[in-house]
Recover the amino acids of this structure.
């Protein structure tokens, strides 16, 4: 009986996995657009589309705390993240 319940619960959960991945991709793309819109003008010519979701999340947290940085410092930190990811030199 336990194995039947386990099998049924797994069968019901498996179709949800691709939709969860699609939802994560969608939320990452939304966050990417938010980051791009909030970035300083000097940092808008960087390849945001090539960043992984984890790097986009890190940029978002950086931009939330932007009050403690000047635009120049913020641009430097953003560029440092792109360098670390290997997207710019």
């Amino acid at each position: 009986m336990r194995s039947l319940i386990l099998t049924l619960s797994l069968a019901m959960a498996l179709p949800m996995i691709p939709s969860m991945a699609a939802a994560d991709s969608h939320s990452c793309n939304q966050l990417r657009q938010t980051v791009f819109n909030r970035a300083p003008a000097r940092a808008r010519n960087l390849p945001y589309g090539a960043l992984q979701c984890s790097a986009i999340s890190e940029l978002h947290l950086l931009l939330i705390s932007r009050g403690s940085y000047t635009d120049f410092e913020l641009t430097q930190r953003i560029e440092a993240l792109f360098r670390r990811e290997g997207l710019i030199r």
